[in-house]
Amino acid sequence: MTLDLDICHRQGSFTLEARIHSEGRLTALFGQSGAGKTTIINAIGGLIRPSQGRIVVNGRVLVDTQSGIFVPKHKRHIGTVFQEGRLFPHLNVRQNLLFGRWFTPRRERVADFSAIVDLLGIGHLLDRNPATLSGGEKQRVAIGRALLTDPQLLLMDEPLASLDEARKSEIYPYIERLRDEGNVPIVLVSHSVTEIARLATSIVILSDGRVTAAGPAEDILRQTNLFPQTGPAETGALIETHVLHHEEAFGLTVLQTRAGTLTVPLLDLAPGAPLRVRLRARDIILSLQPPEGLSALNVLPGKVSSIGEPDGSSVDVMLDCGGDSLVARVTRKSVERLGLRAGLPVHAIIKSIAFDREAVGRAPTEET
Ligand SMILES: Nc1ncnc2c1ncn2[C@@H]1O[C@H](COP(=O)(O)OP(=O)(O)OP(=O)(O)O)[C@@H](O)[C@H]1O
Fold first, then answer.
1. Residue of minimum CA distance from atom 8 in ligand 1
2. Would the CB of 313 count as within 6 Å of ligand 1?
3. Domain boundaries of the chain, sorted by first residue
4. Strand partners for 80
5. Closest Cα to atom 16, ligand 1: which residue?
6. Quick one: what percent of the chain has pLDDT higher than 90?
């Protein structure tokens, strides 16, 4: 899918001036409260009319203020999922799911009800009333309802914001499947680094109504300075791995990366399954020698590729570990003490705490 958006919109004292080009299957709009994320979603969905500019989805012009084009909301074929699922309380789950269909002419109905129900794991909920569902279940039904309208694009405005961490972890795999198998590109609004690291293929960062950075998720997340609020704590590298084998006696799974293996808590996946692993910059320690007598199980050899600008007492050290780009956040003092410089061979020691559940997700599969 391609999304081309170049708009200017004023609302009150706020001005949005955003230009976005994305080919990602799941494009995350990330930024602090008030940055303009929802305004962009509303402009794409047709809820607001931008003061100026163009919006083109998959080559179809939805808005072009110069030539007076403004496709109305109901003709855009765009599905939206909001923070609160907004299910109809008087309809059961099946009726909620089918509701969206009523607005799609019969000949244009392509979405397969059972396939969507299976994808989202909501088959057992069909006769239930929304009031009896958990927050995560409600959101899965809301996603299903949006998909059944046969959208060409799915907008998700902080769909997980009202859920606790456990519910979020429960729903991530469904969004990953949707991203990889659903054939509907997604634009997701989020202000959680954890969420975008897990789900996004492309990231657009917004600040005060402007795009401050945009690109493939792995390129953006490595630049911890782009995330001044949460960056140093949460950002880092995304690497693609696959399951090598399990060590069930120890409750562990061994993953293959380009530079070596990583051992993580046992995963219920077959050998060969592709995975995306987030390695946070703050969870990586550097050593000049191969470490010995250490409890950490994960050590990847590599070399320093560059050293970032200091940020207070810390600095980001970019590493090349067999072709995987990692980033370690260390103190300036360590840089000096270890004599770190581009080209120097090092060992990246990854703290075992780095592998909490939400940091290990399914790797986006190639678009077909
Ligand atoms: N109808 C409106 N009239 C005037 N100002 C508005 C209107 N709607 C939104 N704004 C302002 O526009 C700015 C951007 O709002 P927007 O909802 O797009 O931000 P956001 O990045 O989605 O924030 P959040 O993460 O809090 O949802 C904010 O300063 C908001 O107060």
1. 11
2. no
3. 3-221, 238-362
4. 155
5. 36
6. 51
Taking only the tens place, the pLDDT of each residue in 308-367 is: 888 888 899 999 999 999 999 999 999 999 999 999 999 999 886 566 666 777 777 654
**pLDDT tens across 30-72, in order?**
998 889 999 999 999 999 999 999 999 989 999 999 999 999 9
Nearest-atom number in ligand 1 for the CA of 35 is 21
Q: What share of the chain is helix, strand, coil (3-state, %, to 5)?
A: 30, 35, 35
Query: Which amino acid is it at 24?
Result: G
CATH, domain range 238-362: 2.40.50.100
Q: What is the CATH number of domain 3-221?
A: 3.40.50.300
Residue 15 CA to ligand 1 centre (angstroms): 10
For residues 191, 236, 246 and 267, what is the CA-based torsion angle, rounded to 10 degrees? 0
| ipTM given for this complex | 0.92
Q: Is the pLDDT of residue 232 over 60?
A: no
Give the span between the Cα atoms of 128 and 148, in whole angstroms. Answer: 18
Protein residue whose Cα sits closest to atom 2 of ligand 1: 11
Q: CB of 39 closer than 6 A to ligand 1?
A: yes
